[in-house]
Amino acid sequence: MWLPMLGMTALPHLGGLLGGFITRKEVKTWYLTLKKPSWRPPNAAFPVVWTCLYTGMGYSSYLVWKELGGFTEEAVVPLGLYGLQLALNWIWTPIFFGAHKMKLALIDIVLLTGTVGATMVSWYPVSRTATLLMAPYLAWLCLATALNYRVWRDNREKEE
């Protein structure tokens, strides 16, 4: 049973790795030109934080999957919401850093944050541990949403 655990724990990292290629280039060019709030985390924190968050959310999905007996009818909503939030997470980077669409990225991250909350609500009766493992992710998304808003608000003229 370790193979599903490893696979589901690793899955979120795939989008993170692909997003990292886009981000690395843009952080050194376009992102440098933007006005950013003083309270933003340092750039070096983001890969460390996202590695931890992706690992936690992936393992959490495994716990829910295992508890519900795999991809069963009962798992459609909890794992469907998880899949939706993962897709919203993965598309944020190409929207923000790739296309420089800060407002569209803000809409995406607001939807993402709400979907993570809904995922956690659907997981709570299944696995409290999985739900709690998602709490740091939700907290980080709240910070990231505020940061996305401020960067968009302060740099609207630079949006392409």
TrEMBL record:
Belongs to the TspO/BZRP family. Signal peptide: none annotated. CDD domains: TSPO_MBR. Gene3D superfamilies: TspO/MBR protein. The chain crosses the membrane at residues 6-23, 44-65, 77-97, 104-124, 130-149. GO terms for biological process: tetrapyrrole metabolic process. Keywords: Membrane, Transmembrane, Transmembrane helix. This is Translocator protein. It is found in: Membrane. It is a multi-pass membrane protein. It holds the Pfam family TspO_MBR. InterPro entries: TspO/MBR-related_sf (IPR038330), TspO_MBR (IPR004307). GO terms for cellular component: mitochondrial outer membrane. Its main location: membrane. It comes from Eleginops maclovinus.
